């Protein structure tokens, strides 16, 4: 699954490929924005950890990864 995080006052976005489900990521985002320590923590499929301050999150896009199409069209 792919997660895109827009960072406030930055033209670039953080893209993380995660093995977590969309519901799990959504819950983590909700918890980070609701309070606590104010940090969003994600782990990508290679085990790298990402920590983003919730106060600097402009948007989060959670999209299930589409299967890659392989093959040839005849026509």
Question: How would you summarize what this structure contains?
Answer:
The chain is of the alpha+beta class and 75 residues long. It has one helix at residues 22-34, and strands spanning 2-7, 13-17, 39-43, 49-53, 57-63. It has one helix and five strands; from the N terminus they run E-E-H-E-E-E.
Judging by the overall fold, what is the CATH architecture? Roll
Number of strands: 5
As residue ranges, the low-confidence spans are none
Largest sheet, spatial ordering of strands: 2-1-5
Helix content: 10-25%
Task: Give me the strand/helix succession.
Answer: EEHEEE
Distance between the termini: 33 Å
Determine the CATH topology: SH3 type barrels
- Strand residues, percent: 35-45%
Q: Taking all residues together, what is the mean pLDDT?
A: 88
What is the alpha-carbon Rg in Å? 15 Å
Number of helices: 1
Net shape: elongated
Q: How many domains is the backbone divided into?
A: 1
**Regarding CATH, which class?**
Mainly Beta
User: How would a textbook summarize the main sheet?
Assistant: 3 strands, antiparallel
